Structure formats: structure tokens, C-alpha cells
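Q: Could you write out the predicted structure for this multi-component system? I'm mainly interested in how the pieces pack against one another.
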Amino acid sequence: MSENTMKIAVLPGDGIGPEVMAEALKVLNVVEKKFDVTFALSEHDVGGIAIDNHGKALPESTLAACEAADAILFGSVGGPKWVNLPPQEQPERAALLGLRGHFDLFSNLRPARIYPGLEALSPLREDIAKSGFDTLVVRELTSGIYFGKPKGREGVGEEEFGFDTMRYTRREIRRIAIIAFEAALKRRNKVISVDKANVLQTSVLWREVVEDVAKDYPQVELEHMYIDNATMQLLRYPNQFDVVLCSNLFGDIISDESAMITGSMGLLPSASINEQGFGLYEPAGGSAPDIAGQGIANPIAQILSAAMMIRFSFNRNDIADAIEAAVVQTLNDGILTGELLPKEKREQAKSTAQVGDYIAQLVEKA
Amino acid sequence: MSENTMKIAVLPGDGIGPEVMAEALKVLNVVEKKFDVTFALSEHDVGGIAIDNHGKALPESTLAACEAADAILFGSVGGPKWVNLPPQEQPERAALLGLRGHFDLFSNLRPARIYPGLEALSPLREDIAKSGFDTLVVRELTSGIYFGKPKGREGVGEEEFGFDTMRYTRREIRRIAIIAFEAALKRRNKVISVDKANVLQTSVLWREVVEDVAKDYPQVELEHMYIDNATMQLLRYPNQFDVVLCSNLFGDIISDESAMITGSMGLLPSASINEQGFGLYEPAGGSAPDIAGQGIANPIAQILSAAMMIRFSFNRNDIADAIEAAVVQTLNDGILTGELLPKEKREQAKSTAQVGDYIAQLVEKA
Ligand SMILES: [Mg+2]
Ligand SMILES: [Mg+2]
């Protein structure tokens, strides 16, 4: 890509996707005026709407547009209209697994954060929630026990057994570790690597390779933590975590636990990135068809997905920081959609567009 | 065993073991007077003290006494004096793994409970902690990915890989499921079985066999939950959990997270049971050599281990209930050892013997 032009494939998708994407584009529009960057946006169908318009969830035209782009800004897909399709044709599976496979998006980045002023949403005790929580789980997404061969069933009667293989190569561990250490450089220079090296051979190799990668990042502090201890430490001392590096299974557990700790899943973005730094950025939540079209969905996860895209695929921490600061300010100013408010204060809820406008003007003034 | 006589091998061990065991025996003594039971106790060396007196952590004489008993009441083992021995001769490994292997103690039962009045110790938000948490994690301990073959390392260079095998037979799943359903009958008649059946073949078989066992327990409600979801649900809705049935790895994670949720690890007992209902009962915590001999250790985990023994190996729910009720009352009356008190109230701390006496007299009056 040219230094200051970012080509973005915009895929709003279904449900609340289009309305929250509109707010993210509003913010990108302000960023263009404020910073020395140009966004070349091209919008394409994906998911259910692509099934309706093109006969499949990931049409060739959409895939071609993604290939021509520097990054994919993804909304959300799926809804009741398409639930009765065969599993492999359904919006979520066909679109997301299709894109992940095509671009080898082997890393999943899931930030989780308790925002100042929103501590009461966390299921953690007030003093612990207020001690701070701002983490990024880096999960390997394409190997490990979910995909390792052999897996299956053998034997008969009571001796019949099911089996799965946890498996990682040095190469697979190295590339996800590099993603984690690079991310740490953009954050607070700390990596906690989660494993079970006291009992798993895969973890012993994991630890060796992570130690090796760490040598290239002397400014980053590395700590190893067993998975069972990590699930405990997250509850009691959440502020010790910056980047958390995990295999597929352990990352599945730690990223979900971390999201729950924030108590505000609707605020969480995510990214899937390949070895070239090409990535797909999307809200961690779903398409929420039950509230689509009402203008009440929270656009923050989509806006933060755009900020992640700018940080990780375009390496512009300054712009990402400005957007994230505007989000923090907005939440702190109480400009909140309904799901963040206690029931008795729901009438103070702001609309999707009001929240987007507020964030955009804060970025403009930054 | 004769209906009303229970033969117990008492193994106090090292560190705080002997002093907390003395309080458990105090309670058993009161139980004998109060209920229609006789305890035939025989006390034996185990762990470090057995190394000093007999040259090994699990002497033949101790093992023979355990074989002659109906259950093992275990204290704790290990300390600085023995840390430089070869790993397989160390007190923890040699004594506990030796007993587990010899008696095929394939199930690990770990209760976790937030006691009324002690909600502030939990890292969970006050309203969630007060909603209640009283669970029993039943973990398979001798199979699964920690022991499955093959495991190792192969290949060279960047394609070198580490691998482990998750593996369960129908027989292995069935026997741990039976432990869980039987335990549910002694509690609130609910089992949540934790797996990852959407991606693991081992979990698909696990779910099948658990469903099959459930048919024999129509009065017990069964629910399946994915491991990633379970780690989240424990934080937000802890009171939905009664018995939690887990494979070895998932149980390692869930039992530790559950213990942390209570915020009072010093109160937690545990049990390891075989197919014949023979079991080893011990505090979940360690030998705490740093506070040994000062009379300040909390005896409750040891006393609750004795209650579990009476419930699970002797099937006397009435006696176990009476002991557990006395513990609840003691905590509620503020008869607390120092580690349960905030720093500014430490001078109100009761001694090990004072807490034991208080519980014993409550059982006597019950
Ligand atoms: Mg998950
Ligand atoms: Mg553990």
C-alpha cells in the first residue's frame, strides 16, 4: 500500500452490521480530515445478504475485493432467515471460515478492557475491577487440538475410545509468538504465555520456542503461566495481564473468560491476522438480529475494530490511540446505549448514531 | 466394614498437618459420642516424616494400614527439609501419587463454596457472591490428555512438532460419570458436564456416555456446557452449578477457578475415590511449613475432609451435614483464624485449637 492510502474492503453483512458500520465509517471520515491519511473504501456483500444477492455467503466478487485491499473491516453475519441452510452454507461458517482459510488468518486477537466508569458492569469485586484490566489475548486459531490429526473413535464396547491430537510445530508456535511480541511493543511490553508445560509435551516445545522468540524482543518482559493458574489469576489480579499468548484451546478459554470479566461484550473488537500483517477486523459479538434496524445497537465494538485495523494493519498507533481515547471519553461522559445502563436509567440511552456522532466529534477535536 | 464401625487410616504428615489433624480427630471424637458410630483410628507416618523415620515417603507399614482401613484421612506433606531429594522421592509425589496409583483413586472431588458472611473474600462482585456458590467439581484424574499415548516430539528444524493425545474410553467416562451422578444425589440433584463436543471427538463420546449414565438417574438434571462457556458462567451465574463433571484437563481448570471464586482456599477439602468407594480425604491446600507449629493454621479444611469422608465413604449424610452446619455456624459467628480476617482485625484471630473446639462443641449440641 502507498504510505498514506489505506485500501479497505468494507463488509457490513447482516443484522446490526450495516448500522454499526455506518458509525465506524463516520469516524474514518473524520480521521481522513484530521490525519495525513486517505481511506479507499469499497463496500461488498457478505453473509446472508450475499446469499440473497449472489447465491453464496462469500461471493467471488467480495473475495476479489478483499484480495485487492490492505485490510477487511467486517460487520457481522447471520440471522433467522438463513438458519435452515446446510451448515457449510450458513453465513457465519461460509463467510468467516472462508475468509480465514483463504488468507491464512492464523492469529486471533481479542482485546478485553474494563473501562473507567464501567467497573460496575464487571462481575469482579469493585476494588479488583477498579485496579484495572486492559489485556489483549493472542490466540492461535488454525492448529492445536481442534485440528490435530489423528482424531476419531476406535475399539468396541466399553473399550471403545475417542481421541484427539494436540499438536504444534516450531513454525506454528514461532509465528503466533511473533504476533504476540509485536503486539506487546504496541502496548505495555509484557507477554504472559499460557501453557501446561508440567504435563504436556506440546507445551514444553511451546515454551522453548516462545523463549527463543523472546530473545528478539529484549524490551518485552516474558512470563509463563499454567492454564489452570491463569484462569485464577485473571479473577484476582487482572491488572497483571497485558498481552496473553495462547494456543488454540487455551486461547478459546482465556479470551472468553477475559471478555466476561469486562462485563460488556458489546464493546469488544477482534482481529484475525496473517503472517503478512493482512487482517480481518470485526466486533467480537454477533449480528443481533433481534435489535437490528432500531438504531439502538452499540457501535463501539465496530469503531474499535476500525481502530485495531489502523493499529495492526497500518501501524498508525497515533490514530488508533486517538479513536480509543475518544471511546474512553464517550463512555466516561455517559454517552451510552441502553445495554450499558441499569434498567432504571434506560430512558437516558443514546442511539447508535448519537454515540457514533459523539465519538467522531471527539476525534475531530483531539 | 461393620455397619457402625469405621476403620480410618490417619496420616497427619508434615507442616501444619499434625496440628489441623488433631482438630479433625477432636470432632470425630464428639461424633462418636453423639451418633451411633465408632471410629477405629490408626495413625501412621507419611511424607517427609516417613522419609525421616522409615527412609521413604510411603512406607510399606503405612500402605498396609491403608489397605486394612475403610478410608484414608490425610493431612499434608512436604517442606523445605525434603525439597532437594530427587523428584520421585519427594514427599508430595511419592506419597500422593503412590496412594493414588495403588488404590486406583481415579476421581478427584473438589467442593467449593462461598460461606455466608465470607462473601467479601470472593473476587466476585458482592451481589454475585451473595447470590450463592456451592459446587462440587468431579474431575477424572488418571486419563485424558495428561496421560494419553502417544505423546512426544518428532521431526526436525522448524517442522519439529510436539504432540499429546487426549483419549477416553467408554469405561473411563462411565465410571467418573457414575461418581458425579451419585454425588448429585447427595447434593442438589444437578450435574453440569463440561466438554468441547463441537470440536473434540473425545468430547462427543464423553457426551454420549454421560447421557447414557444419566438414564439411571432420572431424578438428576443433566446439562452440557462447553469449557469456554463454563469458565464464563462461573463468574456471572455461579449459583447455577451443583456437581460439575469434568475430564482431567477441564477439571484441572474448573476446580482451580472454582477454588479462587471462594476466595478462601484454606477452607477447601478434597477427596480422591475409587470404584469401590474407597477414598483418600485431604485439605486442598498444602503443608504451609512457614506457619507450622504456631497454632494459627485453619483446621476447617481438615475437618471438612473428615465430613466428606463420612459422606462419601461411609454414606452417613446426617453426620456430614451436622459437621458442615457446625462449620457454617462457626464462620458466621466470626470464630476465624487470621488469614480470613482483614489486616486491621487480625488481633481478633482465633487459634487452631479454638476453632476446632468451637466446631466440636457445636456438633455436640446439634
Ligand atoms: Mg469460545
Ligand atoms: Mg490445577
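A: Regarding packing and overall arrangement: Chain A touches chain B through 54 residues (CB under 8 Å).
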